[in-house]
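ok trying again, last paste got cut off:
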Amino acid sequence: MGLLLRAVNLRRVFVQGRRVVHALAGVSLAVAPGEFLVITGPSGCGKTTLLNVLAGMDRPSAGEVVLGDVAYSTLSEDDLSALRRERIGYVFQFYNLLPHLTALENVALPLRFRGWGREAAVRRAREVLEEMGLGHRWRHRPRELSGGEQQRVAIARAVAGNPDLVLADEPTGNLDSRSAARVADLFTEINRQGRTLVVVSHDPALVERAVRVLPMRDGSIAAGT
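nice, full thing came through this time. structure:
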């Protein structure tokens, strides 16, 4: 079986005034289909930058990302957006739900952007919210939901379109321990269903559930991993 995702010698440089920051300093990794990978490391080590590059939300200063057989460097911004929309689900630490939409509408909207009909999108959104234990909360807007519930809506949104790859940036970082454990359990179940996960986290609940853990430090994957 081939690789789903490859990153080759990724470098990302930011210039802040007179200071040059090497957020990524030659990161290479490979992810197999169905893998559950957690990337750990201290704050500021480059984890979120790496995830944003893997998602195609940021372009590297050098290096390459390949999803399946598609190299990001060959894609225009529009094509990269289309790839992200069709093949990648992303879970943010702070949920990024649209405040004026219900939970159901937040999950269904990306499906509509992908060309799903309204009835099919709503049906799929209801189905995934049920899987997340939120079937009774689908009419509620984000302000009416707890942090843990909002994150479960965000996870439902990320997986509803059956993406090839799910990326998550500190998905339990803003949650209490009970809600964090429930989210970690959901990721385990999502992985059991065959989805490929790459998660940035320092949460032991997620680390212990991962198939593989890669520590980062100073913009690089730690030696020996």
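cool. The radius of gyration is 17 Å. Helices lie at 47-54, 77-87, 103-113, 118-131, 147-159, 177-192, 204-207.
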